[in-house]
Amino acid sequence: DGGITQSPKYLFRKEGQNVTLSCEQNLNHDAMYWYRQDPGQGLRLIYYSQIVNDFQKGDIAEGYSVSREKKESFPLTVTSAQKNPTAFYLCASMDGGSYNEQFFGPGTRLTVL
Amino acid sequence: AQTVTQSQPEMSVQEAETVTLSCTYDTSESDYYLFWYKQPPSRQMILVIRQEAYKQQNATENRFSVNFQKAAKSFSLKISDSQLGDAAMYFCAYQIQGAQKLVFGQGTRLTINP
Question: What is chain B's pLDDT, residue by residue, as a tens digit (114 residues)?
């Protein structure tokens, strides 16, 4: 089955630690995205990548980093510089064709202890 | 800057009734796409319906339809014959033609009363 997987589903981090969230897609999509969702708010764009080895900052990139070494993978690192990292993180991909539909993964809930 | 506003934080409807969720957006662009996404308790985002701004005809998908008013920058979602499985957060989103970025509204929580 084609789709997007995110792991882990739940992640706990101590303050001061970096942590990496995984996102993998087998849809052969060129573009991939990371969003953050806080309670009572919509999704906010952290980073996106249109092609391998290239990525762009979104609206709230501070304290986060990404890489895009393979087309199917777009991991997100939450660094210790992110002051309020507890949130729900969603990864998405898009084929760049005429439909402009983004497909989403199931998400990772990150909690800082 | 493009913004999307959903003025109804919560809505409720009786099962089998019809409900309309509101969305307005602000843009100076003429070519763009509008979307409604559903986020059930599982938190998986699911596309409900999409509308291309150049199309005058309102999009429909089974029980879901939109009322797209381009001049008023309004994009409401109508759910007919509401079912218990429709209970979810609904997000309106906007994307400029050729751009990569989706801009989301803050969401409307829809409750279906049996």
Answer: 679 999 999 999 999 999 999 999 999 988 999 999 999 999 999 999 999 999 989 999 999 999 999 999 999 999 999 999 999 999 999 998 877 789 999 999 999 999
* Buried-exposed string B83-112: b where 16+ CB fall within 10 A, e elsewhere: eeebbbbbbbbbbbeeebebbbbbbbebeb
A chain contacts of residue B50, beta-carbon cutoff 8 Å:
99-101
Nearest by CB: A100 against B44, B91, B95: B95
Contact check, Cβ <8 Å, A45/B102: yes
Beta strand pairing call for A103-104 and B10-14: unpaired
